[in-house]
Amino acid sequence: xxxxxxxxxxxxxxxxxxxxxxxxxxxxxxxxxxxxxxxxxxxxxxxxxxxxxxxxxxxxxxxxxxxxxxxxxxxxxxxxxxxxxxxxxxxxxxxxxxxxxxxxxxxxxxxxxxxxxxxxxxxxxxxxxxxxxxxxxxxxxxxxxxxxxxxxxxxxxxxxxxxxxxxxxxxxxxxxxxxxxxxxxxxxxxxxxxxxxxxxxxxxxxxxxxxxxxxxxxxxxxxxxxxxxxxxxxxxxxxxxxxxxxxxxxxx
Length: 252
Ligand SMILES: NC(=O)C1=CN([C@@H]2O[C@H](COP(=O)(O)OP(=O)(O)OC[C@H]3O[C@@H](n4cnc5c(N)ncnc54)[C@H](OP(=O)(O)O)[C@@H]3O)[C@@H](O)[C@H]2O)C=CC1
Ligand SMILES: O=C(O)[C@@H]1CCC=N1
Hints:
Elements: E1 4-8, H1 12-21, E2 26-31, H2 34-44, E3 49-52, E4 62-65, H3 72-75, E5 83-88, H4 95-98, E6 103-110, E7 120-126, H5 131-139, E8 142-146, H6 150-161, H7 163-181, H8 185-202, H9 208-215, H10 221-231, H11 234-251
Parallel strand pairs: 1-2, 1-4, 2-3, 4-5, 5-6, 7-8
Antiparallel strand pairs: 6-7
Helix pairs in contact: 6-11, 7-8
Bound molecules: NADPH dihydro-nicotinamide-adenine-dinucleotide phosphate and (2S)-3,4-dihydro-2H-pyrrole-2-carboxylic acid.
């Protein structure tokens, strides 16, 4: 395996990305404690190079930084050498502030948790010199979209980075509703998973409004349920979710 990537941080996003990349890349993880990087390796199920910050050498490496935005200033001075490229998944953290870590090229990426199944939707922005490489690297773990500027990336964070949590709320609520009507929990979960799987495919080729029109029969069940969603201001709630998440990204 000739290609390699170094993760800084051993949390959920690093693990999701490593799961998606570990079949094509050798993995190094830089973390704070031996226990944490060993746990990471066990969860990944693939041998990795385990490094602590005091031994961290990023020289000429492709780095994916996966700590919390607030941790950047603390870890930057610990990283010795000049990275070939620094990819950051840190929400709301500007390309300018990434320069506290020395690298030839900088790129912000906003993947989502589906990276672990090779199905992330990842937005990217940064140094165009590494655009092709960046699209290929993150293309390994799903779909990719190169955006024009960092404002767009912050909005993309609100939509596709945070999005799995919003859809999880919908998924859980739909199951709760079915259980309230008397369906067994396991059956409700099976139906919800099948629903999301089929919907995920349909929405690739069908506009959401047309999809809805095709499901809704005059005076039927869908119209009754859809009316309840509108009454509950789900549409407005979704738009507000994107606004609030975008505002938050700007403040991180
Ligand atoms: N979760 C998601 O779905 C997504 C997350 N992101 C971004 O990914 C990044 C990581 O998030 P996520 O993986 O969810 O978070 P986790 O809490 O799972 O991981 C946080 C990581 O930061 C490390 N860390 C915490 N405090 C410090 C510190 N003081 N100094 C150095 N390292 C520290 C943790 O190390 P330790 O184990 O030692 O505590 C851990 O490796 C964030 O910047 C987030 O914006 C982007 C897209 C999606
Ligand atoms: O909640 C967050 O801040 C991170 C960024 C996108 C998803 N999780």
